[in-house]
Amino acid sequence: MQVFTTQNPGYIIFVLDQSCSMGQPYCNGQSLSEFASLFINRTINELINSNMNGEHVYDRIFISIIGYGANNDLYIDEIRSDYLSEFADTPLRIEKIKKKVSDGGGGLVEIEEQMPIFIDPTYNKRNVTNSGKGMEYCINLINQFQRKHIGSTPIINHITGGYPIDFENFILHSRNIKDKNRIVINTLLSQNSLNEFPNILDTLESGFQESIFYESSSYIPKNSKNSFNKFGFNIKKNAKLVTTNINSICMLFDFGS
Amino acid sequence: MELTVKGYITSKKSELFSDCADRYAYNKHHHKFSISDGVSKSFFPKFWAEYLVEEFVSREKIEDETFLLECQEKWLKTITEIVNKPTVKWFTQNAFNKKSPALATFVGLQFFEKEKKWEASALGDSFLFFVPKKMKTFEDCIILSSKKEPIIFDNFPDYFSSIGEKFKGERENESGNLQDGTFYLMTDALAEWFINEKENAIGKVDVWQNQKDFEHFIDEERQTEKLGNDDSAILIINVDKASESGIKYTGNTVSDIYQLSEKQNIEISKREFEIAQKKEIEKKELQRIEEEENSKVGENEISEELELVVEKELVNVDNNETEEETVNNLKETESTSKNDNPEVSKEKTEMNLEAKKDTKGLLQKVGDGLVKVGIFITGSDTTNEKETKEIEPKQENSESNKVEKKEDSNTSKTEPIKDIKQEPIPKAKESKQSKNITDKF
Questions:
Q1: Count of structural domains, chain A
Q2: Which residue of A has its CA nearest to B83?
Q3: What are the angstrom distances between the C-alpha of B35 and each of B6, B55, B211, B235?
Q4: Å between A182 CA and nearest CA of chain B
């Protein structure tokens, strides 16, 4: 991965499943939909923290949040698209939460943290998981982006709680995306927790449905392996970006030292 | 002994000098030199890098612990003032509450006049190189850094932290007798390039006479990807006549980041002013063209308006509306026209009155079933036909969508895959927003 700068910004598209499958209960009394929004909110927050010099947020990344399955099976919702500083300056709202952090002397101290909300959870219990349409929709966006920012490597993070009903379309468009210097990550919220990135299909729960995601995901870029290793991941040869780990996306970015 | 000091600094490509978190400093009285690279992902790194380099050179002797503590106090004071401002951003406040530290790499160098010695220490991926005047190969260079062999430049360097006693890694120290040659203190991007280019690098650095030369070089090397796109700073200290007593500084050219930043801001303001002026001129020109066009279009609009009224009235006739209602409608049109540009409205009113008469006649003719009106209607019908042709496929689509929507709503996730495969794959509908997104790129 290249270093992202304000002149050569990165692009991440969150393709969010908002269909019936996201209504399933997940953990801590949350639904998959609630968990997915939390994941996106936290990731953007993390990106803001990684790209601010204290007071100012650098536009080293452009973010799009695309939803499918919320309003109509055929429609794609462009939830929000902006440069990072715009997200930082205008979240939907800010919620205050209490958090325990290290006091520096081995103990914990409770602090108040302002949690920015950029997306609210939503799903439609009548709509099916048309992931293929979500991926198809990204193609125009990344083409346009790469036309303007030549050499950039957009990242498409597909977050889903089910299996694509239009799986042929999904594989086809994912392949089209992967083939042209772009990265596809599949975050599978309905899967049992994965401890590592799979390098063979057998690592995933066996079945035809899992092979769809394995086939549609990119290999971990060589340059990012070091970064993943630093965060305690053991990256095997030919490992692919299929994950249940919500924190893995930030490790793909390099904003320089 | 004669010392010549040169210092150059720049930010990442397309970022501003004010964004640069590299810093250097030197002090002629204490013969001290330092360089630091604030870790960009940390909290207010440029203040931290600045306090480290300034504090180090400000005193001839300073204990390590005192040095760090004083820097930390200074940094915390500055940050607290910023965070206490009412305009503080949520992410700044969060980082402050979490006690997020600033991190920075560091190299410090000191010359001892009497002893004719030098001492240096380094932490992180900022480097010191000493190239003796009588160097034969690059291997004769002294290289100081806390980076262990094999040297890999990444985003996880050792650093000094602005909070607590924590610092990652161990400082490396080096010392030697002063001899003729050049000390180079540089931050990571340049150090990586220097190590890769070896003798070639020394030759290239030696030709820089000023900040402009340096910036030109940086642009070129970034272009060829030999140099990483990162903040870059270098302090070059040339030692000459080392055997002679006393230290004399000659011909120093050290760029000041704040002066560079100020100059850049002035240039930006100037450019913005020029752009604003250009836009203003373009706006005025556009307004002029629009006004010209409007006066032409105004006439066309009236005739179109009239055509519409006539069409409407023709329909009204079909619906057995009275001529009185038709006249009322014409009056409405007239009053609407009055809300337009007064001059145009005046023209419109006059024309409408004439048109009113014509229309009445026309309606009469319609009633009489005259062919002339038939031609008029055919004309408008032809246009409608074209429109209908364009709309037709959409209507087909929307029909098929309706069917599919119905099917989809009855389709459950557990349906056998075989059935799903048989369904045609409809194209994802893109909203108008897509254009808005790409415009933002």
A1: 1
A2: A55
A3: 13, 11, 17, 7
A4: 17
Helices (H), B319-370: 323-338, 342-368
pLDDT tens string B37-78: 999 889 999 999 999 999 999 999 988 888 999 999 999 999
How close A240 gets to chain B, by Cα (Å)? Answer: 23
Beta partners for residue B390, in sequence order:
none
SS3 B30: coil
First to last CA, chain A: 14
Q: Write the pLDDT tens digit of every residue in B257-316.
A: 999 999 999 999 999 999 999 999 999 999 999 999 888 876 676 666 666 665 665 555
C-alpha dihedral sign at B205, B211, B217, B219: positive
Give the containing element (helix H, strand E) for A80.
Answer: strand A76-83
Residue to mutate among A1, A14, A20, A53, with most B CBs inside 10 A, is A53
Residue ranges and CATH numbers for the domains of chain B are 2-255 (3.60.40.10), 295-440 (no CATH)
Enclosing domain of residue A67 = 3-90+123-255
Q: How far apart are CA A78 and CA A63, in angstroms?
A: 11
Which ipTM score applies to this complex? 0.85
Domain contains A108: no
- Which two tokens mark A207? 């079945």
HSE at residue B255, side-chain half, CA atoms within 13 A, is 26
Question: Which chain A residue lies closest to B441 (C-alpha atoms)?
Answer: A145
Task: Indicate whether this model's pTM tops 0.80.
Answer: no
Residue owning tokens 């965070």: B83
**C-beta atoms surrounding B323 within 10 Å:** 14
Q: What is the dihedral of CA B43, A149, A116, B430, to 10 degrees?
A: 180
Q: Give φ, ψ of A35 to 5 degrees.
A: -65, -40
The enclosing domain of A37 has a CATH number of 3.40.50.410
